[in-house]
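Sequence in, structure out. Go.
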Amino acid sequence: MDPVTRPLLALGATLAVQMLGSMVLTMPSVIAPAVAPSLGLGAERVGLFVGLAYLAAMLSGLVSGGWVARLGAVAVSQMSMAASALGAFAAIAGHPLALTLAALLIGTGYGMINPASTSLLGHHAPLSNRGLFFSIKQTGVPLGVALAGVAMPWGLHVAGWQPSVACAGAACALLALLLWPSIARLEPQVAARPDARRDPAATGRGPGLRAVWRNRPVLRLSLMSFAFAFTQLCFVTFLVSYLNLALGRSLALAAGILAGAQVISTAARIGWGYVADRWVAPSRLLGGLGLAMGASCVGLAALPASAADALILLAATVCAATAMGWNGVYFAELARHAEPREVAALAGASQFFTFCGGMVGPVLFAEVVRRGGTYAGAYLTLAALPTAAGVMMLRQARRQRA
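Output:
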């Protein structure tokens, strides 16, 4: 490995990739209400688009570790942006088959991001600030969501949906090109390796799901990420509907509270990363966050329709700070438990569980409501999952301390 580290360059590159990847993935959800009817589709069909994208992300993440070993993490990041750009360009056609292809391409690109960025930050981030660096990189998710929420409606008003989507694809393609000079500075060892094809990871036969099952700390982290992502996506997906339909708040107020939650989650991700580096062991912090997630879901479910707006905002803020703030600490802890040459492959395999939770959670939550349950009852039931994961992580923290 190259003894020279460039933490700020690695952080800037991974943050930019995460932000644009999240923006393109969120873009269909933002424009669906305005665009879907003109294509002869229902706005709810965006759920199928997102589901296909997450399925593709789960699969591409599994093989990205081998690609990182063979080509390097920066090159895989470039591939991620290229796939996102091609997906955006394919969506411009507006045909259902083109939209299906777009979902698969965007999801494939999104699944490459974390294995590549985990490899880069695992090497370049200072050990004393690893949690903070990973957490700052993960702020690219809410920043990308916010960018899509601001830029796409403005683009729809000014130029129409097709030029707006084309601009998003062009931004991804431009970033892929801009990353090219950083290969020599961030990964000089890739070119110096005599024969990457002799490396088992480079042929795609490196560690994957089986390695996750063999590594007990990583397995617990992966199961925890399933539970936390399940909770996070349910909170984000149904908060506006809960506040509007069950608590009688206006759509504008409910959407404003969700937007505020994105801001809170951005600050929380950085804050929890700093806490994990300075004061609380990461596994213990993740366990505490799981318990706090469960408590916040209970608090959200217990809100009466007569609750003051300030109390509703407080409950949503606590949910956002816990259910949306854990990701950076998780990836930093994952990198700590993996061998350097296996970190990308283990990150891809572990995020298979993460994306699975994100894909399954909203479906099951919606099914509970569809079968006659209330939003409050669904949130109350949901609280058990992160609570159990939190207890599991606290037990792991005790084992590590012993």
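Check: The chain has two domains: 7-183+199-203, 209-401. Residues 298 and 380 are 5 Å apart (CA to CA).
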